[in-house]
Amino acid sequence: MITTVITIVCICVALSLSSFFSCAESAMTGASEAYMADLEKNEHNSHAGMMLKILSNRSRAVITTLIGNNVCNTLGTALATKLLVDTFGAEGVAYATLIMTFMLLIYGDMLPKSYAVENSNKTALRIAPIIKFCMWLFTPVVYVLQKVVHWSFKLFGIKETNSGDIDIAEIRGAIDLYQGNEIKREKEMLKSIFDLSEITVYDVMNHRQNIYAVDIDLPMNEIISKVRNSRFSRIPVYREKPDNIIGIIMVKSFLKTCLQNKDRLDSLKIEDMLLEPWFIPETTTLLQQLQAFQKRREHFALVVDEYGTLEGIVTLEDILEEIVGNIEDETDKSQMTVRQTSGGYYIVDGQTPIRDLNRMFNWNINDDNVVTIAGYLLDMTESIPEEGQKFVFDGFEYTIMKRIRNQLKQIKIRKIEEETIQEEKQ
């Protein structure tokens, strides 16, 4: 009788340990290293630090749980078989198989793993000390098994990878999966940060047509007047033609110098007050340019194409706006480039960037080949549309409202709903 009770107790212990190892395996598989690192750094959680070390060698930890699980399953099944054979004879083998299969499936596998999957980080923190001890205890066996697995991979031509590596796509996916509204703005900012390595300065620059520049051959009084009345902190200076930039005026220092020499302005040489222009290729990514701005401690660069022709200017503010959205201060002109009208129409300036429209209204106008909405229509129509002309491309209706010479100055846009498209087709 005593022997039977001891055997039953041992079977229950084996089942409990099997349940623990199954739970541990699922918890470590689903645990987040980023979460553990944050917990250790900001809350000084010792269990988090312990689990972080365990996860750095996840394969060894998983092998440890598999060893423990298999040993417990084998021991529990063997004890149950012996007990039932002693009680029922040869039929006890069948009884033991049925009972242990059910018990191991439900209590040794399904329940603990289901719980661990739903509470992986919390469970991983709780089991960290025990798993650490088991990894130390099973070190010799784990070492041998790791070598066997390694050589088996080589034998079958399977390439081993580091499961702990996290690539950009995985981080993007984690951001996209978050559906909460509390940090919606932060979510968009994080996505924008990862886009910096894919967007070029050409996509966000101020086009050369919109550049406020000063002709160096103007009289000094006129130059001072233009600089004083501008809203910019840096102004390009050109000679003969606007594309020929020869230097940059730092407005604050320029006006200070002029004020200090107000009685002898004619003796000042503007060439001596110019900064050397910094030219960058239009293919430079925003991430590269942001790093270059930091390194050079500058906020302003001139964008040129492969032939050295001026395309526009890009500033530090332009890059920051890609992350945080539009930045306006007291010096910015309050001008609306997008105006909503009745019927779901929007009146937009032709030079409005497509990226801004897509982000503002969650549209999907293709900006792979062009930057502005005017450029998009020129590219799609392969012509210069006349005022009043109407076009439909990829679910959007465009009407040319205003054209000056060859420039599309004002465009009316409406997104066509799916039902409207089907009705028009019918």
Helix/strand layout:
Elements: H1 2-30, H2 33-43, H3 46-55, H4 58-88, H5 92-118, H6 120-137, H7 139-155, H8 168-177, H9 184-195, H10 201-204, E1 206-207, E2 214-215, H11 220-229, E3 234-238, E4 245-250, H12 251-260, E5 274-275, E6 279-281, H13 286-296, E7 300-304, E8 310-315, H14 316-324, E9 338-340, E10 345-349, H15 354-361, H16 373-381, E11 390-393, E12 396-404, E13 407-415, H17 418-425
Parallel strand pairs: 2-3, 6-7
Antiparallel strand pairs: 1-8, 3-4, 4-5, 7-8, 9-10, 10-13, 11-12, 12-13
Task: Describe, in plain words, how this protein is organized in 3D.
The protein has 426 residues and is α+β, with helices and mostly antiparallel strands. It has 4 domains: 2-155, no CATH class; 167-196, no CATH class; 202-300, CBS-domain (Roll), CATH 3.10.580; 338-425, Uridine Diphospho-n-acetylenolpyruvylglucosamine Reductase, domain 3. The chain contains 17 helices and 13 strands. The chain has helices spanning 2-30, 33-43, 46-55, 58-88, 92-118, 120-137, 139-155, 168-177, 184-195, 201-204, 220-229, 251-260, 286-296, 316-324, 354-361, 373-381, 418-425, and strands at residues 206-207, 214-215, 234-238, 245-250, 274-275, 279-281, 300-304, 310-315, 338-340, 345-349, 390-393, 396-404, 407-415. The strands form 3 sheets. Strands 9-10-13-12-11 form a 5-stranded antiparallel sheet, with helices on one face. Strands 1-8-7-6 form a 4-stranded mixed sheet. Strands 2-3-4-5 form a 4-stranded mixed sheet. α3 (46-55) crosses α6. It starts with a helix and ends with a helix.
